[in-house]
Amino acid sequence: xxxxxxxxxxxxxxxxxxxxxxxxxxxxxxxxxxxxxxxxxxxxxxxxxxxxxxxxxxxxxxxxxxxxxxxxxxxxxxxxxxxxxxxxxxxxxxxxxxxxxxxxxxxxxxxxxxxxxxxxxxxxxxxxxxxxxxxxxxxxxxxxxxxxxxxxxxxxxxxxxxxxxxxxxxxxxxxxxxxxxxxxxxxxxxxxxxxxxxxxxxxxxxxxxxxxxxxxxxxxxxxxxxxxxxxxxxxxxxxxxxxxxxxxxxxxxxxxxxxxxxxxxxxxxxxxxxxxxxxxxxxxxxxxxxxxxxxxxxxxxxxxxxxxxxxxxxxxxxxxxxxxxxxxxxxxxxx
Length: 335
Ligand code: ADP
Ligand code: MG
Description:
alpha+beta, five-stranded mixed β-sheet, binds adenosine-5'-diphosphate, binds magnesium ion, ATP hydrolysis activity, DNA mismatch repair protein MutL
């Protein structure tokens, strides 16, 4: 007698959601990244009750054709890669084709979208599949309501509205820092908390990190072969008691990476007291083939092909930028 059976799709997606949809902020991350991948020039986010009650993201990107709407909600369905070759040099934020399926399995999800050339928009709801005509000028609106309504065990792990909103806000900031070329707006319970026009990279950093940070930071700009590091790193005078202002992006993707963190810490070793932490917004770009982003579903970890070279490059680039300013002396004097 056989005891093995295939799990129903919904359950498969709910299991996958455990990895992808940790909290409202993870929904926001996926939906924002989809808007970015769609080539949006402007993105508007509305949250209710920390994102638990509702997350609505409207973009002016390429839209989704009617025939693709059902597939968009299906697991392992994506427009972003088609082969292993594509995967190895992927330039989009997404590529696994599982986020919307996972989200739709644990929240009431609807997508309204109008692809270029379509006479009107179409709308699909995650639970009944099937499309209906809708009104929308351009782009895509994704609405995710009542997160974990059907998975009460997960719902219990949600924190207070304030905490969940703080995580959403942080996620929004990461995308906003990485993409100054996109206008972005965030509102919570009807109140606008960020309204960001398209800006030069440093102006966007100033808008999100504050003028004080910018005034006490050195510009980093270094290049070696295909490696490039740009951004701002704080002088010792702006050091912080926690790591709350540290942003490292690899090819536009926010990452937390031991190797990079270590390179940064080493660059500050002689100028910053051990209990203090620098603030920084750093952008590393390299050939996509030199970094594997397919390490974890949330893609917050990466693996470098030539880890040693990356470490050395970041360490030296940062050390040089900090030294040029005379930061070393200033920091020592402040000890
Ligand atoms: P992935 O981003 O990994 O491809 P998703 O489940 O997040 O997987 O999305 C599935 C597909 O739906 C995408 O590949 C894309 O074609 C389409 N899509 C999702 N969101 C948008 C959007 N805002 N604009 C245009 N297309 C979208
Ligand atoms: Mg995606």
